[in-house]
Amino acid sequence: APPQVRCYHRRRAGRETVFGVQFHTGTLRGPRLRLRSDELDLAWQDQRFPPDATVEFIFSSGPERVEG
Question: How far apart, in whole angstroms, are the C-alpha atoms of residue 18 and residue 31?
Fold first, then answer.
């Protein structure tokens, strides 16, 4: 199954899903994956996200920090 990533907003009464996304690692071209809000579950219809909002994932094979 493709990786599934969910981002949550923690609240006192629990947590609220902000967005979710699934992708196939075979489609990655390099260590970065940038997705527009219209490519994220829930975010595309959430008025809190500007139309030009993006989320960037940075992948690494180890614990070292990636600059940028």
Answer: 23
